[in-house]
Write a structure and sequence with these properties.
Blueprint: H1 10-17, H2 31-51, E1 72-76, H3 84-89, E2 93-98, H4 101-114, E3 119-122, H5 125-129, E4 135-141, H6 150-159, E5 161-172, H7 176-189, H8 206-215, E6 219-229, E7 234-238, E8 244-250
Parallel strand pairs: 1-2, 1-4, 2-3, 4-5
Antiparallel strand pairs: 5-8, 6-7, 6-8
Helix pairs in contact: 6-8
């Protein structure tokens, strides 16, 4: 696949664009993602704090008001900005991209109303990478299961990680358990998300995602499952990666950018 070719799935873009202001409705169709957010934020924040020294060279401290100050972060497939905003509030200079212009409109409006500064752009990862843009941290959370070519997409995303930087991805494992819980359970029984939000055949196993990341020249440094606790009505990190999981990876400092 040529480097500039898009891995965007138009059907998925249209599906998420139809959400409109539902992105920020805490009791609407995006409610599960809002509940998942604390686990995603903690996973990303804690690994960034442990990896990057502070602007003055001292260790970063979550107890400081802006612990991610001085770092550039790219949120690929940012949607309405559910993850971009809290990462920006932690002090990072966040760029959020999404191929859906309406999604970017919702994200921009909400950020402005909330007093959060974020550089939102209606574009694809491939288009942004072609400009030579590079970031300390690149996030592709709940995105890879919606692209047409996982390996090409991951290669492009990892290309935009600066040497010594970090890449984060979260997605759904392709198992019988994920079909039962994420498709049948979440979409048809519990009605957590609209029917057709996910296609099981597009789910990505941890081994497949790790291979794509490592092919792009990065080293997978951490992984975590994410499970739902119905008694607490909350998500938590777990060793169980059968359904939802997250990976973190580092680009070697001396690694030269490759062409994908």
């Amino acid at each position: 696949m040529p480097k500039s070719a898009s891995t965007v799935d138009p059907a998925d873009v249209a599906r998420f664009t139809r959400l409109g202001n539902e992105w920020w409705n805490l009791t609407g169709s995006m409610a599960p993602l809002h509940k998942l957010n604390p686990v995603r934020i903690a996973f990303i924040r804690d690994r960034i704090l442990a990896h990057f020294p502070g602007p003055d060279g001292s260790p970063r401290d979550v107890r400081r008001g802006k612990p991610l100050a001085g770092l550039s972060v790219l949120d690929i497939g940012c949607g309405g900005g559910i993850l971009s905003e809290p990462i920006a509030r932690l002090g990072a200079a966040v760029t959020g991209i999404d191929p859906g212009a309406d999604n970017i409109g919702v994200a921009s409006t909400h950020a402005e109303q909330s007093g959060v500064e974020i550089d939102y752009r209606a574009t694809t990862a491939e288009e942004l990478a072609a400009t030579g843009a590079r970031f300390d941290v690149v996030m592709a959370m709940e995105v890879v299961e919606h692209v047409t070519d996982v390996k090409a997409f991951v290669g492009t995303a990892c290309e935009m990680v600066k040497p010594g930087g970090l890449f984060f991805a979260a997605t759904l494992n392709r198992t019988l358990k994920s079909f039962a819980l994420a498709i049948v359970g979440a979409e048809y029984v519990l009605r957590w998300v609209p029917k057709g939000t996910h296609r099981w055949e597009q789910f990505v196993t941890p081994a497949e995602l790790a291979e794509a990341i490592e092919t792009a020249g990065l080293d997978v440094t951490d992984r975590s499952g994410v499970v739902f606790n119905p008694l607490a009505n909350a998500w938590r990190a777990s060793r169980d990666m059968d359904v939802n999981y997250m990976l973190a990876a580092e680009k070697p400092v001396l690694m030269a950018d490759q062409a994908f």
